[in-house]
Amino acid sequence: MLVFKFGGASVRDAAGVINLSEIVRKYTGQQLLIVVSAMGKTTNALERLTKAYMNGTDELPDIFSEIKDYHFNIAKQLFDPSHSIFNEVANTFVEIDWMIEDEPHDDYDFVYDQIVSIGELVSTRIVAAYLNHADIKSQWVDARGYIHTDNNYREGNVDWEKTMVSIKNDIPKLLEKGIVVTQGFLGGTSENFTTTLGREGSDYTASIFASCLQAESVTTWKDVPGILNADPKFFSDTVKFDELSYTEAIEMTYYGASVIHPKTIKPLQNAKIPLLVRSFNHPDEPGTIIKETANTAFEKPVIILKQNQVLLSISAKDYSFISETHLSEIFSFFAKNQVKVNIMQTSALSFSVCFDLKHERFEKLLVALAPNFKVKYNEEISLITIRHYKLGALRDLVGGKTVLLEQISRNTAQMVIK
Ligand code: ASP
Ligand code: MG
């Protein structure tokens, strides 16, 4: 059996849904499970809605109408007005109505998951209905009953044993009856609350289903021809890899390559399932295959740019050297506030650390550090990681930018630039 994952960009409009059905039709006769993300930029819009609700701001009704209109418009282009999908979509959105009628619950992350998950619940309703409408037999499956997680909202940790049992129990039977359409990004707790697996987590969902079902392969259909050595938005002369090893792909996602969610590869590597990254615009092209392979020769370096970083430099208030005791205290604040370190460096009197700017967490971190440490920081900087670099070419890559911090190891060079 095969697992396909369709991201938001692939289903951002009615034409995208039709295109999905045409891709799927080519695989008629094969057992297929498809994982679908929220349409277009819906997750961002639902994040804004959550924020508006939690902060009690008045843009809430407008944001909500915009999200509903967007989905109903897509549905109108795909179905006759009498089709039951309109009710299904409306009933899914009612969940949000119920939620926002009440005073906000004080756990932001909990509320976030209950609201933001609606994006995937609606998109999969529309896709499943459209496949059936296009005579491709399919069944809508609620991923929350299969991907079991703890209650670490917004970054649910998967209970693999339970998940494996649920998936193996039901899904093979369903696959015999037609295509299984399910949501990316979602999980469920033992109390039946919804969790999410972290932004862009649909790839991970595909990988979970595939490894529990011992799929032949997973294909993620994207708006790029495959995995490129750099993001063409920022770099010219990019090249596509035909093949990459699991290890290289894991390294790339670790350093922030956004083409695949970081948690996706490991389960596939363990189960020896190849991951294909292919273009939904050119579905006959082979794309990139990630599998167990001897390391590719890299003619061009792999370049990963992470924007929206903070470089924080921390020193002790009493001007003492940065010691292990300081570091262990500093790290405990990072762990407690869920701030993930991208690169760090220690010197005698200060500890410098670069991470993604997430305002809420950053502010809490500053508060925690304040009693014992002095801090300085730079915002709006970028972290560039270059794997398989050529030493001479490193400076050319950063152009006229200032390098604030630099680390070079055998395979990987990293620079924080402004
Ligand atoms: N819709 C979610 C997001 O945008 C999950 C995903 O797309 O993979 O983060
Ligand atoms: Mg998405």
Question: What's the CATH H-level homologous superfamily of the largest domain?
Answer: Acetylglutamate kinase-like
Please tell me the total number of domains: 2
DSSP, total strands: 16
Bound molecules: aspartic acid, magnesium ion
CATH C-level category of the largest domain: Alpha Beta
The CATH topology label of the largest domain is Carbamate kinase
Query: Main sheet?
Result: 8 strands, mixed
Radius of gyration from the CA trace?
23 Å
- Relative helix content: 25-40%
CATH architecture name of the largest domain = 3-Layer(aba) Sandwich
Strand content: 15-25%
Q: What separation lies between the terminal Cα atoms?
A: 47 Å
Mean pLDDT over the full residue set: 95
- Residue runs with pLDDT of under 50 for 5 or more positions: none
What order do the strands of the largest sheet run in, or round the barrel if closed?
A: 3-4-2-1-7-9-10-8
Order of helices and strands: EHEHHHHHEHEEEHEEHHEEEHEEHEHEE
Instruction: Report the structural category.
Output: alpha/beta
User: How many H/I helices?
Assistant: 13
Shape: globular
What would you say this structure looks like, in words?
The protein has 2 domains: 2-291, Acetylglutamate kinase-like (Carbamate kinase); 302-417, 2-Layer Sandwich (VC0802-like). 40% of the residues are buried. The longest helix has 19 residues, at 60-78. The chain has helices spanning 14-25, 42-55, 60-78, 85-101, 108-116, 118-133, 160-177, 202-213, 246-254, 265-271, 324-336, 359-369, 394-398, and strands spanning 2-6, 32-36, 138-141, 179-183, 186-188, 194-196, 217-222, 243-245, 275-279, 288-291, 302-316, 341-346, 351-356, 373-387, 403-408, 412-417. It is built from 13 helices and 16 strands. The chain has 418 residues and is an alpha/beta fold. Helix 8 runs parallel beside helix 10. The strands form 3 sheets. The chain has an 8-stranded mixed beta sheet with strand order 3-4-2-1-7-9-10-8, with helices on both faces. It has a 6-stranded antiparallel beta sheet with strand order 12-13-11-14-16-15, covered by helices on one side. A hairpin with a 3-residue loop joins strand 15 and strand 16 (412-417). The structure holds aspartic acid and magnesium ion. Magnesium ion binds at residues 7-8, 37-38, 43. It comes from Mucilaginibacter ginsenosidivorans.
